[in-house]
Amino acid sequence: MSVNITLLVVMGALFAIGIYLLLERSLTRVLLGLILLTNGANVLLLSTGGFAGKAPLYNENISASEYSDALPQALILTSIVISFAVTAFMLGLIYRSWLLVRRDEVQDDLEDRRVATQSSFDEEDDADVPAETTEFTSPEESEERPGSRTVQDTQHTGSEEIR
Amino acid sequence: MTMDFSLVSIAPLPVVLPFLGAALAFLLIRKPALQRRISTAVLSLTLLIEVVLLFSTWEHGAQAVHLGGWAPPFGITLVVDRLSSLMLVVSTAVSLAVLIYATGQGQVDGDEDAPVSIFHPTYLILVAGVSNAFLAGDLFNLYVGFEILLTASYVLMTLGGSGPRIRAGVTYVVVSVISSLLFLLTIGMIYAATGSINMADLAIKLENLDSGMQLTLHLMLLVAFGVKAAVFPLSFWLPDSYPTAPAPVTAVFAGLLTKVGVYAMFRTETLLFPGDRINDLLMLVALLTMIVGILGALAQSDIRRLLSFTLVSHIGFMVFGLAMSSVAGLGAAVFYVVHHIIVQTSLFLVSGLIERRGGTANVDKLGGLARLSPLLAVLYFVPAMNLAGIPPFSGFLGKLGLLQAGVDLGTGTAYVLVIGSVVTSLLTLLAMARVWNRAFWRRPVDAIDPDPVLLLPVSAVKWQGTAPVITGTDADDDDDGMSDSNSAGLSWAMVGSTIALVALGLAVTLLAGPLVEFSNLAAQDMLDRTPYIEAVFGEGAGQ
């Protein structure tokens, strides 16, 4: 099977940026990442239908192998509708989260925090990143910041404070 | 033959009826009493139809409906085989019980006066999505079924929009969307590789691909379903998100949603990718799911969180049965799924009752419930022992079947899994017994910061109608300490539906003979593959 190289490149870019955004802590960016990823998946479905420019409608002069495949397009339509609904719902969730805690961030699970504050938890040994090299501020510091700051702001000032 | 045809043509109804019911319930959004009747009636009717389908497949095996009369593999095909009809009946029976519990709770809490009631339409759509996933004869329809049930579950998960639910909902939605995306990508790749998405067609065509390509597609599907079924290490999201939802919603999620993932794994592992290519990997994953899950449960003090971890842990038993690829192993796994759906859901419903009766779901703060409410104690004890696998309950029979199949297989990994299963069962017993000792058995004064309702002498709490009435003191008086109580009323609908589910769990034990026979028939069908393929394409197609 031959594939359209432009679609492949577009797909790669969509997936790369999508995954990068998904790993951010800001909910809006996570949502943008999901949107890009679903679009990447749609492009993948489109590319399974073969090259563009083939006959979409029945014509008796055209041989059977010369028609464009309609099924991937039907699948994409369904997938677009689903991702549209989920995006709308996610926006609602993010707005609600903003209303409640005034922060556009993935929140910590309380039970996880409880485990983290147990005596067996050693801040230095059990931290994901060694304390000296971290570029992130500690949770206490970031909680004091007003919610309107973006994650990037926090990172910036945080690294300056440490150095 | 005409009789068969007319019977199986009702197969789309388990999807269509709940959708129509949801539309009607949505129209009547300002009339909760009417909504309640509609959803109960629709689910009862759906259950009836599914029971008819179950008996039909028991007699005749797998059957298919080609929607719109399109010849396979071009149209949408719905397939009812023994596995899917059994899953349909159990899932709808459990959904019906939970619906009655939820409406009972809504009546007690006065949700009837709420301006709009979104619960009933969403719940019916969830049931329609679950049925669609069980009936789907092609991968894309399975994906659509997943999306229907997931979208409905997003709404149910965040019902009320309180802080913890939004936090849990965000994690849940993002994780679910990513797993669905992976599934969609795999569908695209499978279509590119074979030119088909019909599962019966793929069963024939996938074998012609080179083995590396097969393995890639196989593993991608496995990861996508592994997230949905909460198989370790893809189970991290479940204990974080499930416990925050309302009790009946958690109960139905725990009973059904992960099992749809397990069903999808059963279906794809046996029909699309038969053979023992990755059985060792599945065995390892099953072992880790069991052990890590149950160790997580032992660390919890909140009953619902604890139950979420046991849910993850016991998914491992089903994966173990699947990994054996033998009729005995797969049959035991199917039986175990049925047992686990019912028992896990009843335990979550009971945890809801405990929370309302004792004012908290934290076992550290509970005590003396056995004296305060003997019925509640029985309702907890029976499914808890059932889950732990104490004879003569169905949990014991299911685990025994798995262990026997493992010993029959006789390989080293199978023996390791047998030992792992026994250890997990014992640890489950330990986790369940700890809840029992603390919440039910010990004196309430031994609890940390117990709810005032627990400290009252039994004679002071009278049950009048549905809510506890405290005699001798004025409940509204600030001086008696009762104003701090979180205890909420119960209704007979809530207790009754829990009793019904616990009784259904016992019925699985009593009817274990025919059920095991049916599960083994289902497993035989799955491993043979020809019944499914012939149901779609007609006689002789599966050769």
Provide structural commentary.
Chain A has a domain at 10-49 and 69-108: Helix Hairpins (Orthogonal Bundle), CATH 1.10.287.3510. Chain A starts with a helix and ends with a helix. The relative contact order of chain A is 0.09. In chain A, helix 2 (27-47) runs antiparallel to helix 3 (71-101). Chain A is 61% helix and 0% strand. Chain A has 163 residues and is an all-alpha fold. Chain A contains seven helices and no strands. Mean pLDDT of chain A is 75; it is low at 141-163. Chain B is built from 22 helices and four strands. Helix content of chain B is 72%, strand content 3%. Chain B is globular, with a radius of gyration of 23 Å. In chain B, helix 7 (163-194) runs antiparallel to helix 9 (211-229). Chain B has 543 residues and is mostly helical. A two-stranded antiparallel ribbon of chain B has the order 1-2. A two-stranded antiparallel ribbon of chain B has the order 3-4. The A-B interface holds A 1, 22, 27, 30, 34, 37-38, 41, 44-45, 47-48, 71-72, 75, 78-79, 82, 85-86, 89-90, 93-94, 96-97, 100-101, 106-107, 109-112, 115 and B 140, 144, 147, 151, 154-155, 158, 161, 163-164, 166-171, 173-174, 177-178, 181, 184-185, 187-189, 191-192, 197, 240, 299, 302, 305.
For the structure shown, list the relevant keywords.
heterodimer; A: 163 residues; mainly alpha; Helix Hairpins; elongated; B: 543 residues; two-stranded antiparallel ribbon; 22 helices; 3% strand
Helices and strands, with pairings:
The complex is a heterodimer of chains A (163) and B (543).
Chain A lengths: L4 H18 L4 H21 L23 H31 L8 H7 L6 H4 L12 H6 L6 H12 L1
Helix pairs in contact in A: 1-2, 2-3
Chain B lengths: L1 H7 L4 H15 L4 H29 L2 E4 L10 E4 L1 H28 L9 H17 L3 H19 L5 H32 L4 H7 L5 H19 L7 H5 L5 H26 L6 H20 L4 H22 L2 H32 L10 H4 L1 H15 L5 H16 L2 H30 L10 H4 L5 E4 L2 E4 L21 H19 L1 H17 L1 H8 L6
Antiparallel strand pairs in B: 1-2, 3-4
